[in-house]
Specification:
41% helix; seven-stranded mixed sheet; alpha/beta; binds iron/sulfur cluster; binds cobalamin; pyruvate-formate lyase- activating enzyme; 502 residues; 15% strand
């Protein structure tokens, strides 16, 4: 059977007139691994599979429909996050008109989290809830007449005679033996279309890999909280690294697991195996961790095995906020982990958010000061957004009025970079100003500039910073293009810059 899997275009995002540089980098910097795992599984079972990453390939809805038609698929699957759902809805309608007899399957986070809403608002025939590898194989069987939809676990499908017009089948069991999966079918996408953001661009080509699924923790803002952690064995992980180096010429790998370092023994095992096979000299890598999991010994071993960066979720520098978001970490632990990572040469990067429910101007200022007091090399700062089915959304439903108000209902690209939820005591513009100030205060310091200068080894490194000047001016000044006046203001030679917040 011919099956086409699509990562949707971002027309609704583009419709805002001007795509922010953050979006331009974020939407195109990593392959859709979920889709590629499903594609690999279908190929393994003898099907002809195509993959379109419409956003990364620069296709709009009309262009995507043309590509889909050209493939002549028997089944089309589209995977949508919440931010891309609006375009996915439009794409679904266009595909239904162009290919009326072809079953349209909707998968990935949005339909999994809010299935009633996603199905009610779209023309997809079936929604796949959770992991899609085995469910898609069963759906192919259904299309071939070998089983009914009711016999496919983990889906929602339309049935006018059912209550609400939808039937939910029993949940699909989570995959236990991840090592049985084939590697993601990266060969189905054009080569090297994904470009890392400059501060994450260590060596190219760079590939994303995922070595575990889910997360045992329960941070209030996160959709991965308590999602059942499972991992690949060190051997499988290093086999895949070897495959990426040998078959794709990988020079850098981002392990994009929610929590790569959940299990120290496994990470030591991966490091031992990378070193044993000499891969630590051929490819570098980065990963995520939690501060309370790592120790100096583990971080040093990672460095020896080729890791050049660890990413830590810190989120706030205020104790009450850390408690509220159930981060389960203390400032002391944070300081220890970041200091060790820096000492062993891992160039630590941290994620922060401003606009947590209990945040005030003072707590955000405390967070900025805390970030600056740590030996961090880079930060990513986002504006807190209430995502569906997170513990934070539960709090909002229960007692939201205590904490603040929603100022923008949209789930579009503005989420995370412009306020949607604003705590009482703060104005939306103030949150934006504090967010951009966080970036300016963190980066425009001799110590951070020196750390970045140290990492510049070639003209390519210089060029990537120049190319990203629009990204920096957006993050630092909330402006689309850099200007000399902004820089003068930033370095304190021209008074306070209105451009920064205007
Ligand atoms: C890598 C990653 C990215 C990469 C690649 C994204 C991609 N298209 O895969 C990049 C950097 C581009 C990215 C960007 C963003 N991301 Co992101 N990302 C991740 C991350 C860390 C890993 C995703 C992954 O590869 N998982 C591994 C695969 C195997 O699992 P999977 O994706 O769940 O796929 C399975 C099922 O979902 C399902 N499935 C998936 N697709 C399809 C398609 C079909 C047809 C079917 C049937 C099934 C199906 O089957 C798959 C295999 O079992 C996750 C967190 C996480 N650990 O999962 C966040 C996550 C997915 N990202 C998230 C967000 C919010 C974003 C951004 C909005 C960030 C931002 N601030 O702007 C953007 C939006 C990008 C976009 N185009 O929509 C949220 C999603 C929330 C939501 N409700 O949508 C997550 C869950 C993080 C979080 N904890 O909140 N992201
Ligand atoms: S923020 Fe990180 S540690 Fe917390 S629940 Fe989400 S994935 Fe897990």
């Amino acid at each position: 059977m011919r099956i086409l899997l699509v990562n949707p275009p971002i027309d609704s995002v583009l419709a805002h007139g001007h795509v922010s540089p953050v979006t331009a980098y974020l939407f195109y910097n990593s392959a859709p691994l979920g889709i590629l795992y499903i594609a690999a599984m279908l190929e393994q079972h003898g099907h002809e599979v195509g993959v379109i990453d419409a956003a990364a390939q620069g296709l709009d809805v009309a262009g995507t429909v043309r590509e889909v038609e050209a493939f002549r698929p028997d089944i089309v699957g589209v995977g949508s996050f919440t931010v891309t759902f609006e375009t996915t809805r439009v794409l679904g309608r266009a595909l239904k008109e162009a290919l009326p007899g072809v079953p349209l399957i909707l998968g990935s986070y949005h339909v999994t989290l809010v299935p009633h809403e996603a199905m009610a608002q779209s023309d997809f025939d079936v929604g796949v809830l959770g992991e899609g590898e085995h469910t898609m194989l069963d759906l192919v069987d259904w299309h071939a007449g070998r089983r009914t939809l009711a016999q496919v676990d983990g889906i929602v499908f339309r049935d006018p005679s059912a209550q609400g017009g939808l039937v939910f089948t029993p949940p699909r069991k989570k995959l236990r033996e991840l090592d049985e999966l084939p590697y993601p079918a990266r060969h189905l996408l054009p080569r090297n279309i994904y470009k890392p953001i400059p501060v994450d661009d260590h060596a190219f080509p760079k590939f994303a890999m995922i070595t575990s699924r889910g997360c045992p923790h329960a941070c209030a803002f996160c959709q991965k909280s308590r999602s059942g952690y499972r991992s690949h064995s060190p051997r499988y992980v290093v086999d895949e690294v070897e495959h990426l180096v040998r078959d794709f010429g990988a020079r850098d790998i981002a392990f994009v697991d929610s929590l790569f370092c959940a299990n120290k023994k496994r990470v030591h095992g991966i490091c031992d195996e990378l070193i044993r096979r000499g891969l630590h000299e051929q490819v570098s890598w980065t990963c995520s961790s939690r501060v309370e999991v790592v120790d100096r010994e583990l971080l040093a071993h990672m460095k020896e095995a080729g890791c050049w960066r660890t990413r830590f979720g810190i989120e706030s520098g205020n104790d009450q906020v850390l408690d509220f978001i159930s981060k389960g970490i203390t400032k002391e632990k944070i300081r220890d982990a970041i200091t060790w990572a820096d000492e062993v040469g891992l160039r630590p990067k941290a994620f922060f958010m401003v606009g947590h429910m209990p945040d005030t101007r003072e707590s955000i200022e405390e967070t900025i000061a805390f970030a600056k007091s740590l030996p961090l090399h880079d930060v990513t700062v986002q504006i807190n957004t209430l995502l569906p089915e997170t513990p934070q959304m539960e709090i909002w439903r229960r007692e939201g009025h205590r904490w603040g108000r929603v100022v923008n209902e949209s789930d579009d690209e503005k989420s995370f970079w412009e306020p949607t939820f604003v705590p009482w005591g703060l104005e939306p513009q103030e949150v934006v100003e504090l967010h951009r100030r966080f970036y300016r205060e963190f980066y425009f310091r001799p110590v951070t500039l020196a750390r970045h200068a140290e990492a510049i080894e070639s003209w390519r490194d210089v060029a990537k910073y120049v190319q990203a000047s629009n990204l920096f001016s957006f993050l630092f000044f909330n402006a689309q293009r850099p200007s000399l006046r902004m820089l003068r203001n930033a370095f304190g030679t021209g008074g306070q810059g209105n451009e920064a917040t205007g």
